From TrEMBL:
InterPro entries: IMPase, Inositol_monoP_metal-BS, Inositol_monophosphatase-like, Inositol_monophosphatase_CS, Inositol_monophosphatase_SuhB. Its EC number is 3.1.3.25. Its cofactor is Mg(2+). GO terms for molecular function: hydrolase activity. Belongs to the inositol monophosphatase superfamily. It is an enzyme of class 3 (hydrolase). Keywords: Hydrolase, Magnesium, Metal-binding. This is Inositol-1-monophosphatase. SUPFAM superfamilies: Carbohydrate phosphatase.
Length: 261
C-alpha cells in the first residue's frame, strides 16, 4: 500500500513515541506515577509520549485540531481536520510491567475518521488503515476472521473496575455469551482489542465507557479489514457515546443479539 503523506506522518509519530515508551517501560519500577482516578493512572512516560506525538503532528500539519487523553481538545485553524490521540492505551498494563499497550493516532476529516495507526512497540506491530484503502499490519494485509460459528468464536471486552456501576450489566452479558463461544479475553487495551479483531485474532469485541481516543483509529482499521463496527445503541454514535460492538460479518448479528439483549 502506498501511504499518503498524512499516514506517513502518523506512522513516524507513533514509532517515535513508541521508542520513548519502550525505554521507559524497561525502567517501569522507577517511573513516578500519580493517581488520576480509580484505576486510571498517568505517568511521566504517558505525558512525554503525547508531547512527542504532538510535536511531530503539529510541526507537519500546524493547522489541524487536536484531541488527546492528556492534553484535551484544541481547535485548529482548519476546522475540518483534527488529530485524535491516545499516547498510551493500556496504561495499567504498562505500569504493572505487562507488555500489552499501544500508541493510537487517528485523523478525522469532516466528522469521519480517514486514517488510523495503532503501534504496539513491545511486539513491533504497526496496524494502520486509510479509508477505502484496506488495513495492514506492518507489510501484511489484514482481514477479519472467517469463522462463522459462535462456539468457535473468541471475543474480547473490558471489565468494569474500581466500583463502576456497569459491572452487573457486564456480568450478565458474559453469562449470556460465555456458554456459547470458545472464550472471552480481557487484555486491558481497547486499541489493541480492535486491531486484533481486524487481524482475525479475535472474532469480535465490545465495550462501553470508552473515550474517542481509545477507539477512533481501531474502528477504521476494523472496517477496512472487512469487519462490522456499530455503537451498542444502534441509534447512537461510537465516538460520542464511547460504546462499541464489532465482529466479522457472519458473527456480528449473533454477537449483537447476545450483547444487546
Amino acid at each position: 500500500m502506498a501511504a499518503s503523506a498524512n499516514l506517513n506522518i502518523m506512522m513516524k509519530a507513533a514509532r517515535k513515541a513508541g521508542r520513548s515508551l519502550a525505554k521507559d517501560f524497561r525502567e517501569v519500577e522507577n517511573l513516578q506515577v500519580s493517581m488520576k482516578g480509580a484505576g486510571d493512572f498517568v505517568s511521566k512516560a504517558d505525558i512525554a509520549a503525547e508531547a512527542i506525538i504532538k510535536e511531530e503532528l503539529r510541526t507537519a500539519r500546524p493547522t489541524y485540531g487536536w484531541l488527546a487523553e492528556e492534553g484535551g481538545e484544541e481547535a485548529g485553524e482548519d476546522p475540518t481536520r483534527r488529530w485524535i490521540v491516545d499516547p498510551l492505551d493500556g496504561t495499567t498494563n504498562f505500569l504493572h510491567g505487562l507488555p500489552h499497550w499501544a500508541v493510537s493516532i487517528a485523523l478525522e476529516h469532516k466528522g469521519q475518521i480517514v486514517a488510523g495507526v495503532i503501534y504496539d512497540p513491545a511486539k513491533d506491530e504497526l496496524f494502520f488503515a486509510e479509508k477505502g484503502q484496506g488495513a495492514f499490519m506492518n507489510d501484511q494485509r489484514l482481514r477479519v476472521s472467517g469463522r462463522s460459528k459462535m462456539i468457535e468464536g473468541l471475543f474480547s471486552t473490558g471489565l468494569p473496575f474500581g466500583g463502576r456501576a456497569d459491572l452487573p450489566e457486564t456480568l450478565q452479558e458474559l453469562a449470556r455469551l460465555m456458554p456459547v463461544c470458545s472464550g472471552v479475553r480481557r487484555f486491558g487495551a481497547a486499541a489493541l482489542d480492535l486491531a486484533y479483531v481486524a487481524a482475525g485474532r479475535y472474532d469480535g469485541f465490545w465495550e462501553r465507557r470508552l473515550n474517542a481516543w481509545d477507539i477512533a483509529a481501531g474502528v477504521l482499521i476494523v472496517r477496512e479489514a472487512g469487519g462490522f463496527a456499530e455503537p451498542l445503541n444502534p441509534a447512537g454514535d461510537i465516538l460520542e457515546d464511547g460504546e462499541i460492538i464489532c465482529a466479522n460479518e457472519p458473527m456480528f448479528p449473533q454477537l449483537a443479539k447476545i450483547i444487546r439483549a
